[in-house]
Amino acid sequence: MIALQIKSTKQIMNALLATETFDTFFTESVSLTTFNTFHIDGHLEKDFYTQEEIDALGGTLPVFSCWKELRPVCFSLIKGRKTPVNFRFVLLASDKMLEEITSAPECEVASNLIRSLVLNVRYENGVVTLITGTSFTTFLLDKSVEQLWDNYIKSFLAALQIDFEIL
User: Fold this and answer.
1) Where does the pLDDT of residue 22 fall: very low under 50, low under 70, confident under 90, or very high at 90 and above?
2) Which of 26, 68, 81, 97 would be a feasible disulfide site paired with 92, CB 3.0-4.6 Å?
3) Which has the closest alpha carbon to 123: 80, 92, 88?
4) Please, which residues bridge with residue 64 across strands?
5) What is the CA radius of gyration of the chain?
6) Partners of 111 in the beta sheet?
7) Strands 26-33 and 86-92: what pairing?
8) pLDDT score at 81
């Protein structure tokens, strides 16, 4: 687990809310405070979907919404002249990201033991902090997945030319 303080709030906010950069991440939850506090549970509600819609998605629904689906909602709550009081987005690695990490030669953990790779995005007092995390289905001493996820996020931000400081 690492904590990264983003040096340019405007740059990360643009990447999060105005571009498709984070769209493939799943969204576990959102808590956003502007004139009210809004909470979004990212779990998909299976009863909302018709069987035809589920079949079109390959026969099963993912557990969580993609950020792509919730980004416009969050953007509409944030946009305006005033900045939010705070927010917290709990994003999870997509299946593709998980596959990329578990296929690395230095990864010694089977993918079925990984529950989620987490990216907490927090905005408070004008500062954006990203905190990585891992969740497993059982206790593991091996830290290779955690290190790979941390490096993945640092590389992801570097590719976007988003400067950060490790806290």
Assistant:
1) very high
2) 26
3) 88
4) 43
5) 17
6) none
7) antiparallel
8) 85
Closest by alpha carbon to 139, among 162, 115, 164?
A: 115
Q: Where are the domains of the chain?
A: 3-166
Token representation of residue 27: 């969204």
- What count of Cα atoms within 13 Å lies in the side-chain half-sphere of residue 44? 16
Query: What's this model's pTM, rounded to 2 decimal places?
Result: 0.91
Give the type of residue at 66. Answer: C
Rounded to whole angstroms, how far apart are CA atoms 144 and 16?
Answer: 27
- The 3-class secondary structure across the chain, one letter per residue, is CCEEEECCHHHHHHHHHCCCCCCCCEEEEEEEECCCEEEEECECCHHHCCHHHHHHCCCCCCCEEEHHHHHHHHHHHHCCCCCCCEEEEEEECCHHHHHHHHCCCCCCCCHHHEEEEEEEEEEECCEEEEEEEEEECCCCCCCHHHHHHHHHHHHHHHHCCCCEEEC
